[in-house]
Design a protein that fits this description.
The chain is of the alpha+beta class. It is built from 2 helices and 4 strands, in the order E-E-E-E-H-H. A 4-stranded antiparallel beta sheet has the order 1-2-3-4. The protein starts with a strand and ends with a helix.
């Protein structure tokens, strides 16, 4: 399945990001939260219910998104 990331936009005043992607022939938008637990060196990335349902069977895409969030 061809997947392209179109944009990652932070939601002002929150720890959320809107992610716009093209998956196959369809545009999809997902909302993700990014948290940095205190005293820890890792980041926790959580998705909305739609992203959880989609990426449950496409975990390789989810892993690449996590890498992009880390760079962002």
């Amino acid at each position: 399945m061809k997947t392209s990331l179109l944009s990652i936009q932070p939601v002002k005043g929150t720890n959320e990001f809107k992610v716009l992607m093209v998956i196959g022939d369809n545009r999809q938008q997902f909302t993700f939260t990014v948290e940095h637990p205190e005293q820890e060196s890792f980041t926790v990335i959580g998705g909305d219910i739609n992203s959880c349902k989609f990426f449950r069977f496409n975990q390789h895409i989810s892993a690449k998104l996590g890498d992009l969030f880390g760079q962002f």
